[in-house]
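Re: your question from the hallway

Yes, I did run it. Sequences:
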Amino acid sequence: MAQSGENNQIERIAQATAHALGRRGYYGTTLQQIADAVGLTKPGLLHYVGNKQGLMQLTLEWYDSSVKVSIVLAQYRTREQDPHAIYSMPSALRGIVQFNALRPDHVRMFSILNAEAISAESPFHEYFQNRDRTLVRDFLNYRWKAPEGTDLAAVLSTAFNAMDGVQIRWLHDPRHTDLNALWRQTERTIFPLPQWEPYM
Amino acid sequence: MAQSGENNQIERIAQATAHALGRRGYYGTTLQQIADAVGLTKPGLLHYVGNKQGLMQLTLEWYDSSVKVSIVLAQYRTREQDPHAIYSMPSALRGIVQFNALRPDHVRMFSILNAEAISAESPFHEYFQNRDRTLVRDFLNYRWKAPEGTDLAAVLSTAFNAMDGVQIRWLHDPRHTDLNALWRQTERTIFPLPQWEPYM
DNA sequence: GTCTATACAAAGATAGAC
DNA sequence: GTCTATCTTTGTATAGAC
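Structure:
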Protein backbone atom coordinates (compact mmCIF):
# COMPACT_ATOMS: atom_id res chain seq x y z
CA MET A 1 0.00 0.00 0.00
CA ALA A 2 1.46 3.33 -1.05
CA GLN A 3 1.02 6.06 1.54
CA SER A 4 0.29 9.63 0.52
CA GLY A 5 1.68 12.49 2.54
CA GLU A 6 -1.69 13.14 4.11
CA ASN A 7 -2.20 9.56 5.23
CA ASN A 8 1.17 9.67 6.83
CA GLN A 9 0.20 12.80 8.73
CA ILE A 10 -3.02 11.13 9.84
CA GLU A 11 -1.11 8.13 11.06
CA ARG A 12 1.21 10.36 13.06
CA ILE A 13 -1.86 12.02 14.61
CA ALA A 14 -3.42 8.69 15.48
CA GLN A 15 -0.22 7.43 17.03
CA ALA A 16 0.25 10.57 19.13
CA THR A 17 -3.37 10.36 20.25
CA ALA A 18 -3.06 6.73 21.23
CA HIS A 19 -0.04 7.60 23.31
CA ALA A 20 -1.83 10.49 25.02
CA LEU A 21 -4.98 8.44 25.66
CA GLY A 22 -2.83 5.79 27.29
CA ARG A 23 -1.43 8.32 29.69
CA ARG A 24 -4.51 10.27 30.72
CA GLY A 25 -7.55 8.73 29.09
CA TYR A 26 -10.19 10.57 27.11
CA TYR A 27 -10.91 13.44 29.48
CA GLY A 28 -7.24 14.06 30.23
CA THR A 29 -6.23 14.15 26.58
CA THR A 30 -6.31 17.60 24.96
CA LEU A 31 -6.05 18.84 21.41
CA GLN A 32 -3.07 20.94 22.47
CA GLN A 33 -1.07 17.88 23.50
CA ILE A 34 -1.66 16.18 20.16
CA ALA A 35 -0.97 19.36 18.20
CA ASP A 36 2.35 19.79 20.01
CA ALA A 37 3.29 16.16 19.47
CA VAL A 38 2.80 16.33 15.70
CA GLY A 39 4.13 19.88 15.31
CA LEU A 40 0.89 21.68 14.51
CA THR A 41 -1.21 24.36 16.14
CA LYS A 42 -4.67 23.49 17.44
CA PRO A 43 -6.47 24.82 14.34
CA GLY A 44 -3.92 23.03 12.21
CA LEU A 45 -4.83 19.77 13.92
CA LEU A 46 -8.56 20.51 13.73
CA HIS A 47 -8.23 20.85 9.99
CA TYR A 48 -7.61 17.09 9.89
CA VAL A 49 -10.03 15.86 12.51
CA GLY A 50 -12.86 18.41 12.71
CA ASN A 51 -13.29 18.13 16.45
CA LYS A 52 -12.24 16.02 19.42
CA GLN A 53 -14.77 13.35 18.58
CA GLY A 54 -13.26 13.07 15.10
CA LEU A 55 -9.83 12.70 16.63
CA MET A 56 -11.10 9.76 18.67
CA GLN A 57 -12.74 8.11 15.70
CA LEU A 58 -9.61 8.47 13.61
CA THR A 59 -7.52 6.92 16.35
CA LEU A 60 -9.91 4.05 16.95
CA GLU A 61 -9.99 3.17 13.25
CA TRP A 62 -6.25 3.22 13.08
CA TYR A 63 -6.06 1.07 16.21
CA ASP A 64 -8.55 -1.43 14.79
CA SER A 65 -6.49 -1.90 11.67
CA SER A 66 -3.41 -2.54 13.81
CA VAL A 67 -5.33 -5.09 15.88
CA LYS A 68 -6.08 -7.05 12.75
CA VAL A 69 -2.38 -7.31 12.13
CA SER A 70 -2.09 -8.74 15.62
CA ILE A 71 -4.64 -11.47 14.94
CA VAL A 72 -2.93 -12.42 11.70
CA LEU A 73 0.32 -12.63 13.58
CA ALA A 74 -1.18 -14.77 16.33
CA GLN A 75 -2.42 -17.21 13.70
CA TYR A 76 0.95 -17.21 12.02
CA ARG A 77 2.56 -18.18 15.29
CA THR A 78 0.42 -21.28 15.45
CA ARG A 79 2.03 -22.16 12.11
CA GLU A 80 -1.31 -23.11 10.59
CA GLN A 81 -2.92 -20.88 7.98
CA ASP A 82 -5.42 -23.39 6.63
CA PRO A 83 -8.96 -22.23 7.62
CA HIS A 84 -9.82 -25.83 8.47
CA ALA A 85 -6.75 -26.22 10.64
CA ILE A 86 -7.11 -27.13 14.28
CA TYR A 87 -5.57 -24.59 16.60
CA SER A 88 -3.96 -24.73 19.99
CA MET A 89 -5.74 -22.27 22.26
CA PRO A 90 -2.90 -21.80 24.77
CA SER A 91 -0.52 -21.21 21.89
CA ALA A 92 -2.80 -18.67 20.19
CA LEU A 93 -3.28 -16.74 23.42
CA ARG A 94 0.45 -16.85 24.08
CA GLY A 95 0.91 -15.33 20.62
CA ILE A 96 -1.42 -12.45 21.42
CA VAL A 97 0.35 -11.81 24.71
CA GLN A 98 3.74 -11.90 23.04
CA PHE A 99 2.57 -9.37 20.51
CA ASN A 100 1.06 -7.11 23.18
CA ALA A 101 4.28 -7.21 25.17
CA LEU A 102 5.89 -5.40 22.24
CA ARG A 103 3.38 -2.55 22.10
CA PRO A 104 2.75 -1.26 25.63
CA ASP A 105 1.40 2.02 24.23
CA HIS A 106 -1.49 0.23 22.57
CA VAL A 107 -2.25 -1.87 25.61
CA ARG A 108 -2.16 1.22 27.82
CA MET A 109 -4.67 2.98 25.63
CA PHE A 110 -6.87 -0.05 25.36
CA SER A 111 -6.88 -0.64 29.13
CA ILE A 112 -7.84 2.92 30.02
CA LEU A 113 -10.50 3.28 27.35
CA ASN A 114 -11.94 -0.11 28.27
CA ALA A 115 -12.40 1.10 31.85
CA GLU A 116 -13.68 4.55 30.89
CA ALA A 117 -16.17 2.86 28.56
CA ILE A 118 -18.01 1.62 31.64
CA SER A 119 -19.80 4.95 31.61
CA ALA A 120 -22.43 5.40 28.92
CA GLU A 121 -21.11 8.95 28.42
CA SER A 122 -17.82 7.60 27.11
CA PRO A 123 -17.35 8.01 23.36
CA PHE A 124 -16.11 4.43 23.42
CA HIS A 125 -19.00 2.90 25.31
CA GLU A 126 -20.64 1.17 22.34
CA TYR A 127 -17.31 0.13 20.87
CA PHE A 128 -16.36 -1.85 23.95
CA GLN A 129 -19.86 -3.20 24.51
CA ASN A 130 -19.71 -4.57 21.00
CA ARG A 131 -16.25 -5.98 21.59
CA ASP A 132 -17.51 -7.80 24.69
CA ARG A 133 -20.31 -9.34 22.68
CA THR A 134 -18.16 -10.52 19.78
CA LEU A 135 -14.69 -11.34 21.09
CA VAL A 136 -15.35 -14.82 22.45
CA ARG A 137 -17.84 -15.56 19.69
CA ASP A 138 -15.29 -14.73 16.99
CA PHE A 139 -12.68 -16.98 18.53
CA LEU A 140 -15.18 -19.82 18.77
CA ASN A 141 -15.34 -19.80 14.96
CA TYR A 142 -11.95 -21.44 14.84
CA ARG A 143 -11.50 -25.13 15.43
CA TRP A 144 -9.68 -25.58 18.72
CA LYS A 145 -8.19 -28.71 20.17
CA ALA A 146 -9.04 -29.19 23.82
CA PRO A 147 -9.63 -31.93 26.39
CA GLU A 148 -12.98 -33.75 26.24
CA GLY A 149 -15.82 -31.87 27.92
CA THR A 150 -14.06 -28.47 27.95
CA ASP A 151 -16.42 -25.48 27.98
CA LEU A 152 -14.56 -23.54 25.30
CA ALA A 153 -16.62 -20.36 25.75
CA ALA A 154 -16.00 -20.33 29.49
CA VAL A 155 -12.29 -20.93 29.08
CA LEU A 156 -11.90 -18.26 26.40
CA SER A 157 -13.92 -15.76 28.38
CA THR A 158 -11.89 -16.36 31.53
CA ALA A 159 -8.67 -16.17 29.56
CA PHE A 160 -9.54 -12.78 28.04
CA ASN A 161 -10.72 -11.40 31.36
CA ALA A 162 -7.54 -12.57 33.04
CA MET A 163 -5.51 -11.13 30.17
CA ASP A 164 -7.02 -7.69 30.70
CA GLY A 165 -6.17 -7.89 34.40
CA VAL A 166 -2.66 -9.19 33.80
CA GLN A 167 -1.91 -6.42 31.32
CA ILE A 168 -2.93 -3.70 33.75
CA ARG A 169 -0.75 -5.24 36.47
CA TRP A 170 2.12 -5.44 34.03
CA LEU A 171 1.74 -1.78 33.05
CA HIS A 172 1.53 -0.64 36.66
CA ASP A 173 5.21 -1.57 36.92
CA PRO A 174 6.58 -2.62 33.53
CA ARG A 175 10.19 -2.27 34.66
CA HIS A 176 9.88 -4.96 37.29
CA THR A 177 7.30 -7.08 35.55
CA ASP A 178 7.38 -9.31 32.49
CA LEU A 179 4.06 -9.72 30.69
CA ASN A 180 5.01 -13.04 29.13
CA ALA A 181 6.10 -14.45 32.48
CA LEU A 182 2.88 -13.27 34.13
CA TRP A 183 0.89 -14.92 31.40
CA ARG A 184 2.73 -18.23 31.71
CA GLN A 185 1.65 -18.30 35.35
CA THR A 186 -1.94 -17.53 34.37
CA GLU A 187 -1.84 -20.12 31.63
CA ARG A 188 -0.88 -22.86 34.05
CA THR A 189 -4.05 -22.14 36.03
CA ILE A 190 -6.43 -21.83 33.08
CA PHE A 191 -4.98 -24.76 31.11
CA PRO A 192 -3.91 -27.13 33.87
CA LEU A 193 -1.57 -30.02 33.22
CA PRO A 194 -1.68 -32.89 32.65
CA GLN A 195 -5.10 -32.56 30.97
CA TRP A 196 -3.96 -29.86 28.52
CA GLU A 197 -0.54 -31.39 27.91
CA PRO A 198 -1.39 -32.68 24.40
CA TYR A 199 -2.99 -29.36 23.39
CA MET A 200 -0.39 -26.78 24.38
CA MET B 1 -18.73 5.02 66.38
CA ALA B 2 -20.59 8.29 66.86
CA GLN B 3 -20.50 10.54 63.82
CA SER B 4 -20.19 14.30 64.17
CA GLY B 5 -21.89 16.56 61.68
CA GLU B 6 -18.58 17.31 60.00
CA ASN B 7 -17.70 13.66 59.50
CA ASN B 8 -21.05 13.16 57.96
CA GLN B 9 -20.39 15.98 55.53
CA ILE B 10 -17.02 14.46 54.69
CA GLU B 11 -18.62 11.12 54.04
CA ARG B 12 -21.13 12.73 51.71
CA ILE B 13 -18.24 14.38 49.86
CA ALA B 14 -16.35 11.10 49.57
CA GLN B 15 -19.41 9.30 48.31
CA ALA B 16 -20.18 11.94 45.68
CA THR B 17 -16.54 11.88 44.57
CA ALA B 18 -16.49 8.11 44.27
CA HIS B 19 -19.57 8.31 42.10
CA ALA B 20 -18.07 11.02 39.88
CA LEU B 21 -14.73 9.20 39.58
CA GLY B 22 -16.59 6.09 38.47
CA ARG B 23 -18.21 8.01 35.66
CA ARG B 24 -15.34 10.03 34.27
CA GLY B 25 -12.17 9.12 36.11
CA TYR B 26 -9.73 11.53 37.71
CA TYR B 27 -9.30 13.99 34.85
CA GLY B 28 -12.99 14.10 34.05
CA THR B 29 -14.03 14.74 37.63
CA THR B 30 -14.30 18.40 38.62
CA LEU B 31 -14.68 20.23 41.90
CA GLN B 32 -17.83 21.82 40.53
CA GLN B 33 -19.53 18.44 40.07
CA ILE B 34 -18.79 17.42 43.64
CA ALA B 35 -19.80 20.81 45.01
CA ASP B 36 -23.14 20.61 43.19
CA ALA B 37 -23.73 17.06 44.38
CA VAL B 38 -23.30 17.95 48.06
CA GLY B 39 -24.95 21.37 47.81
CA LEU B 40 -21.89 23.60 48.23
CA THR B 41 -20.03 26.11 46.10
CA LYS B 42 -16.48 25.38 44.96
CA PRO B 43 -14.86 27.42 47.76
CA GLY B 44 -17.24 25.78 50.21
CA LEU B 45 -16.02 22.38 49.12
CA LEU B 46 -12.39 23.47 49.12
CA HIS B 47 -12.78 24.46 52.75
CA TYR B 48 -13.01 20.74 53.52
CA VAL B 49 -10.47 19.29 51.13
CA GLY B 50 -7.91 22.04 50.45
CA ASN B 51 -7.44 21.12 46.80
CA LYS B 52 -8.28 18.43 44.28
CA GLN B 53 -5.49 16.20 45.54
CA GLY B 54 -6.97 16.41 49.03
CA LEU B 55 -10.35 15.45 47.65
CA MET B 56 -8.80 12.33 46.14
CA GLN B 57 -7.01 11.39 49.35
CA LEU B 58 -10.17 11.81 51.37
CA THR B 59 -12.09 9.61 48.98
CA LEU B 60 -9.43 6.93 48.86
CA GLU B 61 -9.28 6.71 52.67
CA TRP B 62 -13.02 6.43 52.86
CA TYR B 63 -12.97 3.76 50.17
CA ASP B 64 -10.26 1.80 51.98
CA SER B 65 -12.27 1.70 55.17
CA SER B 66 -15.26 0.39 53.22
CA VAL B 67 -13.10 -2.30 51.61
CA LYS B 68 -12.17 -3.61 55.03
CA VAL B 69 -15.84 -4.12 55.71
CA SER B 70 -15.96 -6.16 52.54
CA ILE B 71 -13.16 -8.47 53.69
CA VAL B 72 -14.81 -9.00 57.05
CA LEU B 73 -18.00 -9.83 55.25
CA ALA B 74 -16.29 -12.26 52.91
CA GLN B 75 -14.85 -14.10 55.89
CA TYR B 76 -18.20 -14.09 57.57
CA ARG B 77 -19.70 -15.76 54.55
CA THR B 78 -17.30 -18.66 54.93
CA ARG B 79 -18.84 -19.05 58.39
CA GLU B 80 -15.45 -19.40 60.02
CA GLN B 81 -14.08 -16.60 62.19
CA ASP B 82 -11.35 -18.58 63.94
CA PRO B 83 -7.93 -17.24 62.76
CA HIS B 84 -6.68 -20.82 62.53
CA ALA B 85 -9.65 -21.87 60.47
CA ILE B 86 -9.15 -23.39 57.05
CA TYR B 87 -10.90 -21.47 54.32
CA SER B 88 -12.47 -22.37 51.02
CA MET B 89 -10.94 -20.20 48.33
CA PRO B 90 -13.80 -20.47 45.81
CA SER B 91 -16.24 -19.64 48.57
CA ALA B 92 -14.24 -16.61 49.77
CA LEU B 93 -13.92 -15.23 46.24
CA ARG B 94 -17.59 -15.82 45.66
CA GLY B 95 -18.26 -13.77 48.78
CA ILE B 96 -16.22 -10.86 47.46
CA VAL B 97 -18.01 -10.99 44.13
CA GLN B 98 -21.39 -11.12 45.83
CA PHE B 99 -20.50 -8.07 47.85
CA ASN B 100 -19.20 -6.18 44.81
CA ALA B 101 -22.38 -6.96 42.90
CA LEU B 102 -24.18 -4.83 45.48
CA ARG B 103 -21.97 -1.76 45.09
CA PRO B 104 -21.45 -1.05 41.39
CA ASP B 105 -20.44 2.53 42.18
CA HIS B 106 -17.39 1.35 44.10
CA VAL B 107 -16.41 -1.17 41.47
CA ARG B 108 -16.80 1.44 38.73
CA MET B 109 -14.49 3.82 40.58
CA PHE B 110 -11.99 1.12 41.34
CA SER B 111 -11.90 -0.12 37.75
CA ILE B 112 -11.30 3.28 36.23
CA LEU B 113 -8.70 4.40 38.76
CA ASN B 114 -6.92 1.06 38.45
CA ALA B 115 -6.55 1.65 34.72
CA GLU B 116 -5.63 5.32 35.03
CA ALA B 117 -3.00 4.33 37.59
CA ILE B 118 -1.03 2.75 34.76
CA SER B 119 0.43 6.19 34.18
CA ALA B 120 2.99 7.38 36.72
CA GLU B 121 1.31 10.80 36.61
CA SER B 122 -1.85 9.39 38.16
CA PRO B 123 -2.37 10.42 41.79
CA PHE B 124 -3.27 6.78 42.36
CA HIS B 125 -0.20 5.21 40.77
CA GLU B 126 1.57 4.21 43.97
CA TYR B 127 -1.65 3.14 45.63
CA PHE B 128 -2.38 0.56 42.96
CA GLN B 129 1.24 -0.53 42.62
CA ASN B 130 1.20 -1.25 46.32
CA ARG B 131 -2.10 -3.09 46.01
CA ASP B 132 -0.64 -5.29 43.27
CA ARG B 133 2.29 -6.17 45.49
CA THR B 134 0.25 -7.02 48.57
CA LEU B 135 -3.12 -8.38 47.48
CA VAL B 136 -2.11 -11.98 46.74
CA ARG B 137 0.42 -11.97 49.58
CA ASP B 138 -2.22 -10.93 52.10
CA PHE B 139 -4.58 -13.65 51.01
CA LEU B 140 -1.82 -16.25 51.25
CA ASN B 141 -1.69 -15.53 54.99
CA TYR B 142 -4.90 -17.45 55.44
CA ARG B 143 -4.99 -21.21 55.50
CA TRP B 144 -6.71 -22.41 52.36
CA LYS B 145 -7.86 -25.87 51.52
CA ALA B 146 -6.94 -26.92 48.00
CA PRO B 147 -6.04 -30.00 45.94
CA GLU B 148 -2.55 -31.42 46.38
CA GLY B 149 0.09 -29.59 44.37
CA THR B 150 -1.99 -26.46 43.75
CA ASP B 151 0.05 -23.28 43.17
CA LEU B 152 -2.01 -21.10 45.49
CA ALA B 153 -0.27 -17.86 44.47
CA ALA B 154 -0.86 -18.55 40.78
CA VAL B 155 -4.50 -19.44 41.33
CA LEU B 156 -5.18 -16.38 43.50
CA SER B 157 -3.39 -14.09 41.09
CA THR B 158 -5.32 -15.44 38.12
CA ALA B 159 -8.57 -15.22 40.05
CA PHE B 160 -8.06 -11.55 40.93
CA ASN B 161 -6.99 -10.67 37.41
CA ALA B 162 -10.02 -12.41 35.99
CA MET B 163 -12.21 -10.72 38.58
CA ASP B 164 -11.04 -7.29 37.44
CA GLY B 165 -11.83 -8.22 33.85
CA VAL B 166 -15.20 -9.74 34.69
CA GLN B 167 -16.24 -6.67 36.65
CA ILE B 168 -15.49 -4.33 33.77
CA ARG B 169 -17.47 -6.54 31.38
CA TRP B 170 -20.32 -6.58 33.84
CA LEU B 171 -20.31 -2.79 34.15
CA HIS B 172 -20.19 -2.30 30.39
CA ASP B 173 -23.75 -3.62 30.33
CA PRO B 174 -25.04 -4.18 33.88
CA ARG B 175 -28.67 -4.41 32.74
CA HIS B 176 -28.07 -7.48 30.60
CA THR B 177 -25.30 -8.99 32.68
CA ASP B 178 -25.19 -10.63 36.09
CA LEU B 179 -21.87 -10.38 37.90
CA ASN B 180 -22.49 -13.45 40.03
CA ALA B 181 -23.41 -15.53 36.99
CA LEU B 182 -20.32 -14.34 35.12
CA TRP B 183 -18.19 -15.28 38.09
CA ARG B 184 -19.68 -18.75 38.39
CA GLN B 185 -18.56 -19.37 34.81
CA THR B 186 -15.08 -18.08 35.61
CA GLU B 187 -14.95 -20.15 38.76
CA ARG B 188 -15.58 -23.35 36.87
CA THR B 189 -12.49 -22.68 34.77
CA ILE B 190 -10.19 -21.62 37.60
CA PHE B 191 -11.35 -24.27 40.06
CA PRO B 192 -12.16 -27.21 37.77
CA LEU B 193 -14.21 -30.14 38.94
CA PRO B 194 -13.80 -32.85 40.02
CA GLN B 195 -10.45 -31.88 41.58
CA TRP B 196 -11.88 -28.93 43.52
CA GLU B 197 -15.14 -30.67 44.41
CA PRO B 198 -14.19 -31.21 48.09
CA TYR B 199 -12.95 -27.61 48.51
CA MET B 200 -15.79 -25.52 47.10
C1' DG C 1 -2.68 22.87 4.55
C1' DT C 2 -1.46 25.75 8.18
C1' DC C 3 -1.38 29.88 10.55
C1' DT C 4 -2.89 34.18 13.84
C1' DA C 5 -6.39 36.00 16.31
C1' DT C 6 -10.13 35.43 18.95
C1' DA C 7 -14.46 33.79 21.36
C1' DC C 8 -16.36 31.59 25.11
C1' DA C 9 -16.80 28.27 28.80
C1' DA C 10 -14.89 25.94 32.51
C1' DA C 11 -11.10 24.44 35.11
C1' DG C 12 -8.41 24.90 39.91
C1' DA C 13 -7.59 28.02 43.36
C1' DT C 14 -7.42 32.38 46.56
C1' DA C 15 -8.97 36.64 49.19
C1' DG C 16 -11.83 38.28 52.15
C1' DA C 17 -16.72 39.25 53.85
C1' DC C 18 -20.28 37.32 56.90
C1' DG D 1 -18.48 26.90 57.74
C1' DT D 2 -19.96 28.95 53.68
C1' DC D 3 -20.43 32.54 50.55
C1' DT D 4 -19.34 36.24 46.51
C1' DA D 5 -16.04 37.96 43.72
C1' DT D 6 -12.10 37.37 41.25
C1' DC D 7 -7.65 35.61 39.14
C1' DT D 8 -5.18 32.72 35.93
C1' DT D 9 -4.85 29.02 32.90
C1' DT D 10 -6.59 25.94 29.84
C1' DG D 11 -10.15 23.71 27.31
C1' DT D 12 -12.81 23.22 22.48
C1' DA D 13 -13.84 25.58 18.61
C1' DT D 14 -14.39 29.24 14.70
C1' DA D 15 -13.22 33.07 11.31
C1' DG D 16 -10.48 34.39 8.09
C1' DA D 17 -5.65 35.49 6.18
C1' DC D 18 -1.78 33.38 3.54
